[in-house]
Amino acid sequence: MTSNLMFTFFVICVVCGTVFSLPCLTVKSKQDFDKARDALKSLEDFMKSQASSINSKIEALDKDMTSMEADFKRRQWIKYNNHCYYIGEDIVIWTEAERKCREIGGYLLKFGDSSENSLIFEQIKKSSKKTYFWLGSTDVVNGDWRWIYDQTQLGYKNFP
């Protein structure tokens, strides 16, 4: 029994010695702790308030993406010979068609050869009931047909 008592006394002394070696919290430490706790609570409240705003922005972005997805499905792009082609079905005048192409980083069609011509006209036949489409050529000077993209004269003219 005496040896158990000594062992218990020894353990208590070691634990108490460890506790006594820790610094005591002062009133200033408690105030700093409370300030940090308040700042953390304020940050939490701020983040909660922003979450609602962020959520509404995400919902608006998702709505825009859904709309774009529907547009992409409706308006298919065709990739051929390192070019992307878009065959739209908007009913617009030539200048409006040219402007719309420029807005999306492109230009009205410039045919380079018969294989490109065949590909485009096959796609037009498959995709639309319309019979007229705009090409990217113009005759600003009467009879001098040039591609609007680079102002070169039409080299390939065998359109169906």
From TrEMBL:
Key words, A-Z: Signal
Domain of life: Eukaryota
Signal peptide: 1-21
InterPro entries reported for this sequence: C-type_lectin-like (IPR001304), C-type_lectin-like/link_sf (IPR016186), C-type_lectin/snaclec_domain (IPR050111), CTDL_fold (IPR016187)
C-type lectin domain segment(s): 80-160
Pfam families, A to Z: Lectin_C (PF00059)
Protein name: C-type lectin domain-containing protein
